[in-house]
Design goal:
The structure is a homodimer. Chain A is an alpha/beta fold and about 210 residues long. In chain A, about 45% of the residues lie in helices and about 20% in strands. Chain A starts with 10 loop residues before the first strand and ends with a helix. Chains A and B meet through strand 8, helix 5, helix 6, strand 9 and helix 7 of A and strand 8, helix 5, helix 6, strand 9 and helix 7 of B.
Chain lengths: ~210, ~210
Amino acid sequence: MKINLKHKGELFIISAPSGSGKSTLIKLLLEQVENLEYSISYTTREPRKGEVNGKDYFFVSEKEFEKMIESNEFIEYARVFDKFYYGTAKKQVYSRIEQGKDVIMDIDVQGAYQIMEKGNLDFTSIFIIPPSIEELKKRLIDRGRDSMEEIEKRLITAKNEIKYLRYFDYVVVNDILEEALSSLKSIIFSERHKVKRLVNEEEIYKHFAEE
Amino acid sequence: MKINLKHKGELFIISAPSGSGKSTLIKLLLEQVENLEYSISYTTREPRKGEVNGKDYFFVSEKEFEKMIESNEFIEYARVFDKFYYGTAKKQVYSRIEQGKDVIMDIDVQGAYQIMEKGNLDFTSIFIIPPSIEELKKRLIDRGRDSMEEIEKRLITAKNEIKYLRYFDYVVVNDILEEALSSLKSIIFSERHKVKRLVNEEEIYKHFAEE
């Protein structure tokens, strides 16, 4: 009989200034990496074109969101730009981790910092940064989603958000997409080889002792 | 200008029961991974066929080795099977780390444990294990280097060595060579993305603040 490593699921918090290509990278990771799932966030903002409820987000009313806050259903939540709520529900994460699945939480920098400060959650955090503000500006313009006023606002936010790098476990520069993707995969795969994440350590010792 | 991550070199201690395929894996890693170098060990055993002094090992006399011990030139050393000395010289490791190069130290389990116990060295440890003792036996026989008596002795040693798994940071099962190689690469690459290993963190903040 050959031994296999069995590891505890890991929660990956992935954060980035908007326009860093985070969503594209996460999409590719989910397509290409086995046993990796996405934690769908709750939000009070309106769905954008093409966004599907229960797939991209759970779109809920402010009243519903605040009710969930009251009943302590969120791992974290934040109000972004003093406007919309975004939050991660406990039920989206914990059961999968127990099943040995890795979970990606796509979260804004403010939300990520909030989780880190609380310090009651076991996770690995990854910060994706653009190669420069100039490049970020170019991408936001190319994306054609935001007005120039909105883009300038995002760039100021991005500049502030970069300072949060120090709080993250890992950093990936998204210059060439394929390289950034490969780096993210390395980070996820390496976690699966951590001895402290093994759930079948005793089984391994037994396996070799009995032969 | 685009930002690049600059990281501090990391020392990787790779250990395994003999016959686990460690040497082959390390050879492939050194061929395929940039900025990764090998720390050449000192030993008092005779060179095996094809082994080159200053490439595979520094082959020295017992007297020379003991002189190096006295002058505190080793990070670690051990006497294996009460017979030969093996040791890692400080000069093989520290200067490369400072240059930002990752260094692989190929070391027996006893030597690895000795380093861990001392606790005065910064490193990442990787334990390579065979998929089973049966498979290990098969590989040792196929290798055709040791007598059956020697093989049985190695198997007993291997069984004992597996217990040291708990002291390592990472574990890789060498069942399919290509997969084990890929796992090792992930571990090495992921280290290069650790925020705490960055040497140009301040430069990154400055880069984004000034734009």
